[in-house]
Amino acid sequence: MTTNASDVSTMDTPRLPARETFQALYRHFRPHRWTVAFGALFALLGAASGLLQPLAAKALVDRLGAGESINGILLVLTALVVLGTAIHAVGAYVLERTAESVVLAARRTLIGRLLRLRLPEVERTQPGDLMSRVTSDTTLLRAVTTQSIVSAFTGSLSFVATLVMMAVMDAVLLGVTVGVIVLVGGAAALAMPRIARATQRAQEAVGEISTVLERVFGAFRTVKASGAEERETAVVEAAARRAWRYGVRTAKWQSVAGSSVGLAVQVSFLAVLGIGGARVASGAISVSTLMAFLLYLFYLIGPVTELVEAASQYQVGSAAVARIAEAERLETEELPPAGPARPHAPGEAPSARYEAMSVRYEAASVRFEDVSFRYRDDLPYVHRGVTFEVPGAGMTAFVGPSGAGKTTVFGLVERFYEATGGRVVVDGRDVRDWPLTELRAAIGYVEQDAPVLAGTLRENLVFAAPGATEDEIRDVLVRARLDGLVDRLPDGLETVVGHRGSKLSGGERQRVAIARALLRRPRLLLLDEATSQLDAVNELALRDVVAEIAREVTVLVVAHRLSTVTLADRIVVMDAGRVRAIGTHARLVAEDPLYGELAATQFLSSAR
Question: What are phi and psi for residue 481, nearest 5 degrees?
């Protein structure tokens, strides 16, 4: 169970070109552009009130020098301060609220896309890394899509307006200020690309943490039983240290960028104070002009800081956008809406969906025509010209040794995977011609691992049939031999079953999965070793249920228990990706040596 940190890989995210990054950011920003414009307007009004304060201060000094009253000027200064603060507060609230809306929209879009990913894409990608795209990466959009854009806009206007006012005061001192800021503040430009690279690496490390934790908690009992807690802790800590290291590196370069701005302004202040003092002494400018210029110089800190922060946030956001864009490029399934798959609408009778389904409750036919398949181009073929036909209602069992391709049959019927060659046909139509929602609405599928989701028992039962009535639930509980379990549970159907059904036994999880499939009222029922963990009594009862269902529904079973296989109307024997023989139990025992050997040992392999 132990894993080296290097073994836990995430997607290697390339940096997007600047134009693509800006276009991606704009897609997130565009729906909120008018709200952001409103916030930017308030920010500009606040900035304008700040620009008037040095002028008011200059007038105050001039009046003091002339012995005039300063009451009116003090009132104006107070009003400007209060008004500027209030306007800034409103603008800040609008931008923060919009930022949260941007994050919400990005998460909704990304979650909707990730849940429609094709199964091969999910199998090639670490789930924890995908989760980090939805959580931490989308969070980084908050600042860059609102504050960064507004700061860049308002900061630029405020910066230009401040320089104009400083030029009006004294062009010589303006030249000194600009020269010092450009000279000292150049370090900020050098830090920006380093901020982007460090942020991207930090986010990738966060994705590794999610990946490792998801893997560990997915096999928590195995980790404990193997005594692997310390080894797995070391793997998580290694990823955490990488996240810390790159986070510190990001903080270092952000500190360099921010400090260079502060240093530039302070050096400018000293230069202006020295040169300005000399100009006051020479009579070139007045003391009030020098004081107002110095106030504008300090006021200049705000716009310059905003521009640097905007550039820094853009670099951080570009790293997040690259990771989000990569997840958005993963191939998804197209799932057009289909009536039978929808939950009942408010005000609709819960059983209406089932009444509609019962109209077309006839069994489905399945046919494989010279099907070949492999999971990736660099892997060997799992199916090599598989051909068989299941005409309709009844039970068909798939048997064979490990690696024969039995479970893959179900994956191709469900269109989790696309056949590399040949055709998979359901009801006379190539599955590629079926709308996915309509195809899967006709199928009940019980996986080999019989997964149970965190939540209540009721939520698990109605997961595939959210409009099921209480009568339908009670009926399926009896048929799946779950009614006794429900009676024993403290809260009945509302009992929480734990993470991945940890509070249920393996057999109970299988019965829940079978009940969930039956409640869907399928036309085609796929059972992948659905009774492998049941005791003899419950297996016998469920075999009777399946046999009853098979009278009107097509049932395909991957089984390793001879007692289940002998009930089948037809048996498909698979070996090395090919159909070796098809027939009844008696015929195959007499005619096929492989099946005869498997039957004689009372064991049929269950692996893919």
Answer: 60, 40
